[in-house]
Amino acid sequence: MRIEANRDVCIGAGNCVLAAEDVFDQDDEALVVVLEEHPSDDQVAEVRNAVAQCPSGALGLVED
Ligand code: SF4
User: Fold this and answer.
1) Is 0.90 topped by the overall pTM?
2) What sequence ranges are listed for the domain Divergent 4Fe-4S mono-cluster (predicted)?
């Protein structure tokens, strides 16, 4: 699985970081930064939760 993050769409809400802090971070402008583009099996559930909680639709998952 690969995470796609569209920083042009991100509104900096930070939900993704709260849901999966080891996978997502935010830069100085609060826009999403993906720390782990290919999450481990242990991280998949929290990544799906993060994507579901993103209010802007900036996050997507591509199945390998
Ligand atoms: S939850 Fe969505 S809008 Fe909020 S920081 Fe993360 S990617 Fe951006």
Assistant:
1) yes
2) 1-63
